[in-house]
Amino acid sequence: MSAMLDSGWARGISLLAALTLMLLVTLLPRGLTAEDGSAISHGVLALIMWGMSAGFVHGVGFVPRNRILRVLLGPVVAWLLMAVGLIFYVQYFAR
């Protein structure tokens, strides 16, 4: 499974998702709001930013030597946390 997640297509998905999320957060920050229009918690926002950062790390091909960092900045964590952010935007656009 590790070889499959280190392939070019997986890195491309990570980089594309991180770029998309970066543009959304920069150009349309209102998408990261709750249904009533209030801001999301800083903890959730930190997780979304962590996922975006991990997406960039994986997308450009960097592989940390430390096992813990390799997991924390790996594609599975990146994709899960970026999906949280993208869910907020899907809900925002569906309103």
Please give a structural write-up:
The protein has one domain (2-94). Helix content is 72%, strand content 0%. It has helices at residues 2-5, 8-27, 42-59, 67-72, 75-94. The termini are far apart. The model has no long low-confidence stretch (mean pLDDT 94).
Low-confidence stretches: none
Q: What proportion of the residues is helical, as a percent range?
A: over 70%
User: Cα distance, first to last residue?
Assistant: 38 Å
Q: Bin the strand percentage.
A: under 5%
C-alpha geometry: elongated
Query: What integer value in Å does the Rg equal?
Result: 14 Å
What sequence of helices (H) and strands (E) makes up the elements?
Answer: HHHHH
Number of domains: 1
Number of helices: 5
Average the pLDDT over all residues and give the rounded result.
94
Q: Major β-sheet, in short?
A: none
Structural class: mainly alpha
Number of strands: 0
Write a brief caption for the model.
The protein contains five helices and no strands. With 95 residues, the protein is mainly alpha-helical.
Question: What attributes does this structure have?
Answer:
single chain, mainly alpha, 95 residues, elongated, 5 helices
Task: Draw up the topology in text.
Blueprint: H1 2-5, H2 8-27, H3 42-59, H4 67-72, H5 75-94
Helix pairs in contact: 2-3, 2-5, 3-5
